[in-house]
Amino acid sequence: MSDPSPLDKEARLDLGPVQAIPPGQGRCFRIGSSAIAVFRLRDGALRALDAHCPHQGGLLSDGLVDNEKVLCPLHALAFSLHTGAGLHHSLRVSRYKEIGRARMPSSA
Ligand code: FES
């Protein structure tokens, strides 16, 4: 399966201070014509997925999150914050690794 993200796999981008994302919430960052949703979990970890739900384009950064998953705000499909895989459905989004304020796409 090919990576659906058009972002450069080698790029590292400064997304600003982590404090800009309240614990337990997500924010959408636009990078050129692409967008990623970055989540700051309540345990302090960061997770990043493609911003738009593959179902009908819901903005995942506006969804409810726990330390394991995000629920799309439009129709509540769940996606793993660890892998981007759909939970109980076959859709998926790309997942990115977060390193401090920078992001680097995951090879997984
Ligand atoms: S748009 Fe995300 S579940 Fe429908």
Automatic annotation (TrEMBL):
Protein name: Nitrite reductase (NADH) small subunit
Enzyme Commission designation: 1.7.1.15
Segments forming domain Rieske: 13-105
Statement: the UniProt record of this protein carries the keyword Cell membrane: no
The organism of origin for this protein: Methylacidimicrobium cyclopophantes
InterPro entries to which the protein is assigned, alphabetical: Rieske_2Fe-2S (IPR017941), Rieske_2Fe-2S_sf (IPR036922)
Entry annotated with the keyword Cell wall biogenesis/degradation: no
Molecular function via GO: 2 iron, 2 sulfur cluster binding; metal ion binding; nitrite reductase (NADH) activity
Keywords of this entry: 2Fe-2S, Iron, Iron-sulfur, Metal-binding, Oxidoreductase
